[in-house]
Amino acid sequence: MPGRVSVPNHHTCTSMCLMKSRNNRTTTMLYFALTLLLVNQCYSADIVDTLVGKPIASTLVQLVQKAGLVDTLKQGTFTVFAPTDAAFNKVPAATLTSLLGDPQALGDLLKYHVVVGGYRSRDLTNEQTFTTVAGDKIRVNVYNHNGIVTVNVAKVTDADEVADNGFIHFIDSVIMPPEGSVVTAVSNDPDLSTLLSAITKAGIANDFLSDPLTVFAPTNDAFARIDSNDLNRLLASPERLIETLKYHEVPHTLYSKGMWNHEYPKSTDSHEDRLHIRVNSDGVTINNAKVTTADISVTNGVVHKIDHVLIPVRVAFWLRLNGK
Question: How far apart are the first and last CA of the chain?
Fold first, then answer.
């Protein structure tokens, strides 16, 4: 009849609700399946496969294959500090040739860039040390003023590449294991023999084993710039000699990439006198001394060779009074 409204019965309503419920469940299941697919696509590559997919890591991939480390990096969870192709280009050709001829040495060097466990950049802290798969320690420094992160001497250029068994942080240099402490570096460098003699005379070699430590190491030429009478007076005064030598120490690690212009770090002398670091296009200077060789990594920090001896103001004043 005209105007009559058809009202669905109970069975019709039930069928419609069931169909709607089934459609909702189907949609939810499809959405869940799609999400799982996307997640699997994001995390389906292990560290090696992830490196293979990065053009900047082609040299590293070849060396990993040559050293027989592919299976190692596919098992377990790791953090890899991965030198880029540009980083390997900085390695002297003779060194690289020697490594290519010695798979064991090559493997040890590559394993020095690998840490067990997964660490994002946010997990890294200043002066943090890790024992690498090679068995030696590496040091992480986080410089908050410019956001730079270094691993030994290398700068992290691209962090937090995710693989399904860890993380990759690309670095701008190949990191070589240090051969010893500050004392070892000074002892083994003929250009630092006068500094070694002064440290020995002062009886403070153990002070240079502190960890962490930055040492601005005057070369033999730097000591030769001091007036001979002043140098003799200094060497004859144990207290002032110690103060002068410890004025060259900073009790934390300062790689050149983490320094900034007009930085004033405290030294380890008894007055915690501050040094004045300047950074410009000509390089790095500490007070009046120019850094001639930077970033010598050691097990307890870093050494920078400088071309002048740093003299605390009160010691300089004493010398001007002819040691009186």
Answer: 126
Task: Considering only the C-alpha atoms of the chain, give the largest distance between any 2 of them, rounded to a whole number of Å.
Answer: 126
Q: What's the CATH number for 47-171?
A: 2.30.180.10
pTM, two decimal places: 0.84
Length of the chain: 324
Pairing of strands 148-151, 137-143: antiparallel
So what's the architecture of 182-320 in CATH?
Roll (2.30)
Task: Quote the tokens at residue 314.
Answer: 């009160």
The boundaries of every CATH 2.30.180.10 domain in the chain are 47-171, 182-320
Question: In the numeric block, which tokens belong to residue 111?
Answer: 């394993």
Each residue of 35-59: pLDDT tens digit? 444 444 444 699 999 999 999 999 9
Residue 173, CB-side half-sphere exposure with 13 Å CA sphere: 14
**Nearest to 308, CA basis, from 244, 264, 240:** 244
What is the sign, positive or negative, of the torsion defined by CA atoms of 61, 67, 70, 74? Answer: negative
